[in-house]
Amino acid sequence: MKEITPLIICGGNGTRLWPISRTHSPKQFQRVGDAASLTFFQAAVERHSGEGFGTPLIVSSAKHGRTLHRQLRQIGRGADVILEPMGRNTGPAVLAAALKLAARDPDQLMLVVPADHVIEGDINTAIKAVQPGAEAGYIVTFGIKPRYAETGFGYITDGGPIIAHPNLREVERFVEKPPTRKARLLVESDIAYWASGISLFKAATIIEEYARYDPETLDHVVQALSAASETAEGLLLDGEAFGQADAEPTEKAVFEQTRRIALCRLDVEWSDVGSWTAMYGISNTDASGNVIQGDVISVESKNCMIRSETRLVTCVGLEDIIVVDTADALLVTKVGHCQSVKQVAEHLKSNERIEAEKHQRTDYEWGSIRQLVARDHMTLCTVTVKPGGTMRLDPAPGREAIVAAGEVLLTNGRTQARLRDGDRQTLCHQTRTTLSNPTDTAVEVLVFTIVLQEAPQDLASSARHAS
């Protein structure tokens, strides 16, 4: 049988998992558990690798290109990448991927996989079992047996067997995020399944169905792909054409209308991890029912999740509480109230708070950048460069570097200087600067940027990975 191309969809901001999820570093690029765990995105890539699966194709926002490549390098995986100039929901993203694959082979099978779900169990055996149905022209959507009456998920109801394909079922109907009473009735009916967001079909099949049900979006995505430009991070779709595509998920645009839809029932543990309560539910607990991640001391507390990213956190006498501590923000909430965290993120965004957009610290292979001060026309960051690491900075006016600890080799164009503790250097605003650490200990550099006429360039966005 043909190899299946995993299509990893990396959209969404994951505001319900603030403060670890931010606009510039959303949920899919965050670790599932402690510091040793994979990120959601890395886990999705690893899950559908090996025999029967080809090189993954990833669709992500252009602003996350560097992040996804960095995370791919961390797990030693390669991928083809399509970059969106703006988010248009899953429909146009899937369609762009299908068109790219169909140019090589219209019969190429695509497995659409959200990048931010957690799945435990042998899902690949079930996927391969329905491969003949997808090759025959079915759009296979995968359903999860519901464990409770969840109002935040869509449901698929089973319409009975498809005789020619024993592993597939007819789809009776789709139900989008029902109210509590209706969700309870669906669960009790024993024929309803949670919509997992995972689907399998040929590239030609989804293109044909878009031509039937939404030809205008198909035309816009074709134009966006034909006018796309190759970048270092991937194929960047044309913004003008892509922005005109209808911002609908594939489920609404095609699945709910087509007669080629089929259901595969999955027997796996699945969660879209849409809240901190859900994150607590998928994590391993200790004898007191606590989930402890990071530098945490828990005393006389039970059924809590306590996660620390950077410092010691101590909790005494807590019950059913979730504590998430990052370098620049602290969340304390009660289990069962976590869906409302989205309101906090929206409030921060409406007030243009930086905590809604990005983290104070950004990690790279060569080290990290931590923003200490941010004003209208001035920023102060501390840069840590690992032993043997090299940081590259795009040129920007009004920038100086001061070595706080260690020794660094600073290169500006043809000029090179070895700086030590307390040394200060103005950076060239016309050529790229590199900061290299030739020693066997980490070096810390303060980078100060001041511009009188315009806001200073963000240091993290101008930092480059050393080749």
Instruction: Provide the β-strand percentage band.
Output: 25-35%
- Count of individual domains: 3
Round the mean pLDDT to the nearest integer and report it: 92
Low-confidence stretches: none
Can you tell me the CATH topology of the largest domain?
A: Spore Coat Polysaccharide Biosynthesis Protein SpsA, Chain A
Q: How would you classify the helix and strand content by structural class? A: alpha/beta
Instruction: Indicate the CATH class of the largest domain.
Output: Alpha Beta
Shape: globular
Estimated helix fraction? 10-25%
Radius of gyration: 24 Å
The appropriate CATH architecture of the largest domain is Alpha-Beta Complex
What distance lies between the first and last C-alpha atoms, to the nearest angstrom? 38 Å
**Sheet having the most strands:** 11 strands, mixed
Explain this structure:
- By secondary structure, the chain is of the alpha/beta class.
- It folds into 3 domains: 4-267, Spore Coat Polysaccharide Biosynthesis Protein SpsA, Chain A (Alpha-Beta Complex); 285-341, no CATH class; 361-465, Jelly Rolls.
- Helices cover 23% and strands 33% of the residues.
- It contains 13 helices and 30 strands.
- Helix 7 (203-213) packs across helix 8 (215-226).
- One of its GO terms (molecular function) is mannose-1-phosphate guanylyltransferase (GTP) activity.
- It comes from Marinovum algicola.
- One of its GO terms (biological process) is GDP-mannose biosynthetic process.
- This is Mannose-1-phosphate guanylyltransferase / mannose-6-phosphate isomerase.
- Residues 294-348 form the MannoseP isomerase/GMP-like beta-helix domain.
